[in-house]
Amino acid sequence: MSSRTQLRSTAFGFHILIATVLLTLIQSSKQDCIWYGVCNTNIYKHSQNCPYNGTAKEMPQDGLELLKRRCGFLLENSENKFCCDKQQVELLNKNVELAGNFLDRCPSCMENLVRHICQFTCSPKQSEFMKVVATEKNKEDVVYISSVDLHVSTEYINKTYKSCSQVSVPQTGQLAFDLMCGSYSASRCNPTKWFNFMGDASSPYVPFQITYIQHEPKYNTKEFTPLNVTTVPCNQGVNKLPACSCTDCDLSCPQGPPEPAPPVPFKIAGLDAYLVIMAAVFVVGVIVFLMGSFLFTQGSSMDNNFQIDGNDVSDEMDYTEHDSYFEKLGARTETFLQNVFTKWGTFFASNPGMTLIAGASLVAILGYGISFIEITTDPVKLWASPNSKSRLERDFFDTKFSPFYRIEQIIIKAVNLPQIVHNTSNGPYTFGPVFDRDFLTEVLNLQESIKQINASGTMLKNICFAPLSDDGSEIDVSKCVVQSIWGYFSDDPSRLDDNDEDHGFNVTYLDSLYDCISNPYLCLAPYGGPVDPAIAFGGFLPSGDQLTGSTKYELANALILTFLVKNHHNRTDLQNALTWEKEFVEFMSNYTKNNKSAHMDIAFTSERSIEDELNRESQSDVLTILVSYLIMFMYIAISLGHVKEFKRVFIDSKITLGIGGVIIVLASVVSSVGIFGYIGLPATLIIVEVIPFLVLAVGVDNIFILVQTHQRDQRDPNETLEQQIGRILGRVGPSMLLTSLSESFCFFLGGLSDMPAVRAFALYAGVALIIDFLLQITCFVSLFTLDTKRKEENRMDICCFIKGKKTDSIANNEGLLYKFFSSVYVPFLMKKTVRAGVMVIFFAWLCFSIAIAPKIDVGLDQELAMPQDSFVLHYFQSLNENLNIGPPVYFVLKGDLVYTNSSDQNLVCAGQHCNDDSVLTQIYLASRHSNQTYIARPASSWIDDYFDWAAAASSCCKYKKDTGDFCPHQDTSCLKCNITKNSLQRPVEKEFEKYLPFFLKDNPDDQCAKAGHAAYGGAVRYSNSHERLNIETSYFMAYHTILKSSSDYFLALASARKISANITQMLQGRLMSNGVPMEKALTVEVFPYSVFYVFYEQYLTMWSDTLQSMGISVLSIFVVTFVLMGFDVHSALVVVITITMIVVNLGGLMYYWNISLNAVSLVNLVMAVGISVEFCSHLVHSFATSKSVSQIDRAADSLSKMGSSIFSGITLTKFAGILVLAFAKSQIFQVFYFRMYLGIVVIGAAHGLIFLPVLLSYIGAPVSNARLRYHSQVAAAEHETALAGIL
Q1: How many other CB atoms sit within 10 Å of the CB of residue 264?
Q2: Most CB atoms closer than 10 Å: which of 190, 910, 996, 1252?
Q3: Strands 1020-1025 and 1028-1040
Q4: Residue 535 near residue 885, CB atoms below 8 Å
Q5: DSSP state, 1089?
């Protein structure tokens, strides 16, 4: 029993031993690998692997070295057996380099991605997570693998995707996933889509189908163990490399301050604060005024019983003998001026012939200078000071780099076409109407016709911008940069016939379009670059939205064709481009009129069009301006006459005198322009359009005052006509001098403005007013003397050689308007209740204007500058409706920065090892808050791409064998560069200098996407001296958000400058802390540049400039008035108060009539101050020199004497001419001239004829005893003279 049991036990042990040996043999023959070696090459030159069911094989040493480059983790524990051979490792490294072009800048992302590639390529345990699904045979009957399943953990896929999701591409300002997720943009990409794209065999980059089968973590099947490789977050370093930079990993970004809350409107109790405050001021002011007027003053009969003849000076008046110093000085000043003007007037009245000949000769000599005048129409030279920051920066950019391209653009909108719904395997896609097949065909025909435009031998290919063409070589038109939808189809109309099937759905050109729109880098245009859908399409964004990664470009309802033409700093080099652009405009004008489809609305422009249309606009409104002036001339000529009887109508009329006065006004303008023609100060169209109007306003008033004062005057006994005219000029001359000098000083001080157009206007106007005044007190006085003699001799006006029959003349007396003022209007206005009501009403008007004036819009809409019938106006309107991307902005870095120094590189770059506050990192952080910074995309970075290009030097950098010069990396006959790198894996100093020019000349392609010729060929300016390369300046290009209104533009400029100032401060501080001398560090600066900055910079300081100009003008008027009014501070203050109220109330009108504050309206405001002097100073001077005693009497006297002249001389003259401006074709004339001129005249007349007399009756200058004593003495002398004449 025991022996049998022992035998059985021995047999059982033997079976166990056999089973163990068999199990061991089975285990040793398990299928560890699914492939080994390469046995086929497909049509894309991709290698495909051989099936292999055996165990891993030992890798030779040179293969291990290759494996160590990217898959070093597989060599842990001295592992040397793998399911791949050396050739497969070489292919692995080569293929990984393609992804490395974009992802190497983020080490943890690249490491995470490469780990699974290394595992499925070479893992000795492939069969645990991979399975061969399909094999095929090639022509040699060799079997190769065509499809595999790869089981992978969702945890790995999600973490790898997250670590790579923010990696940027500096060349484009986009994310890597915009280029690496197939037809999906970064915003539409997700982990599954990304990995599916990497395994999709239909892609030219994938050698065979890899189907990723995802499993939840810790999920194991009996057959497979999902691959779950360890991953590293992007903000952690890996393999002794630093963490990803802020621009590639949000987790690495420094925590900035929280976004400030949007500004809250200033309100009190839910109401506008300005209105509430000014309402309170009004209530308090009115209460105080009414109490002072009615409660705390005794009733006075003077309110109803005042004198308006000014002859109430009594010899028995008891004068105070103790006059103040200023009273005596004022009386002497007034006496002196009256005596001077009396003698002056008598002299020129006595010598009219000599005066007129001398005056005409002088005007002719000065006017000849017009032949030397240069009219400036360039908007930059008009509105940007040569010393302004934006102008200097623009000149720097244009000089160091080439000027921004000239843009020829066409916007084609679909009309009455439906949207297109296209059914696909991914669901229905909705396309905009512009993707209609026939519509696209017509767009292509138009595009090709434009390419063939021949302008006197100049074609588009001769002037276009072609970044990938060699300098100096002839350019094929296909290489010209054209941003057009047809770039996606390589300008091939047959692509519209593409047809295929996908799971029962028809695949058409719309599917290709969708893929291209989602990833433009899959469909490069013929010129070699992408077509940005944000530039090529329009109308796809709802109003107020900005571009995002999820923007649906396919909903566009407009297509945009953009042709880029080379620009030149020297205008003489632009002749070919200007000629072609002129032909282009003619072609498009003809096309839109005769050839365009009924389903198209076409708007177009060229680079020269704005300036051309501004010139045309000026010419088109010449007739309107002439009619306006003609009406004013006719009114002046007719109204100067004082006809009492119809029989004497041709004798008493003063048409000749009126025409003479107008000619004097024009002569002053001609003389002013001629003087500056000799000097060489360029003129502007504003001068031609505005200054005659201004000088008429001022000069005509003086003419009316002089003539009407004579008409109301009686010649003294034994007084000759010449003496009478001299005496009258002595009476009104000081007032004329006061207004003319006040206005001239006002304009001369306005000439301190930095804005060329405002400065030129102010200087021309100031000189014109001085000359006009001089001609009036010389030539007009002489002409007036001759005309008065003609009238006294009963000779006909105009036909002065014909003598009238009636010999008896009618004595001078008051006109109808004068009688109305003195008998009706003045007594009514001087009533106590009326005066109080006037003060309350005008104070309310002032308070209301102060409350709303700060709300005036700043800027000038482009549309207003164009004529209503202009094609450019239609373009601007279409642009605002359809444009969905902002203009590019260049951050220019200049100064003595040592780019070969790693610490200086770290101040600029945005990749590995770069500072958290570097130049590019700060711009990137700004782009993340685009709603505040107006920066839509991160800036392109030549320095980061240069580092990446140098890292891939073995495939990207080549040089010629014989010379060592640059060689394109596609040239197989050249040698590969061997770039020595430092510890940061960047080129060492000498290598950096040597190979940077290579990088800037190398054209990008699939193998070397970071080559810099296309993106950075013009972005870096360097020089070679003493065998050293010195980078003088470079720029980093970003994009602004969508900018439509003027405020968008100048706020974008302000934001870009703020960003640049922060960057400059950082650079200078870091350099000095690194030991760089202060004077050297302070040369380093970053400034922003965009093509529109030079036009919109003025609006950043428009309010301060306006207040400064107004303040200087009013101050100059105060000083001149104070001096010429005999140092009368009361009168000067009254003038300043009234002028200030006129300007403030004009500001209120600007708000309610939608007149924005800009350079044009600023010129008009300066002019308004000048014209306001006319409404005020004559009246105030008359008040100060009135012989009446009480303030009310003097106010009434001055208004009676001057009111009719002011009303007829300024108000009615201008009103007639202004109405004509309402019919101007130019919108800028309608808004800024008709509306503002009308406001100036109406508001000025209301203040001068209503408010000012009332104000004088309250706070007018007190009676000057010295002045009254002088008037008494004059009156006595005149009385004695009259008696002597009688006796």
Answers
A1: 6
A2: 1252
A3: antiparallel
A4: yes
A5: E
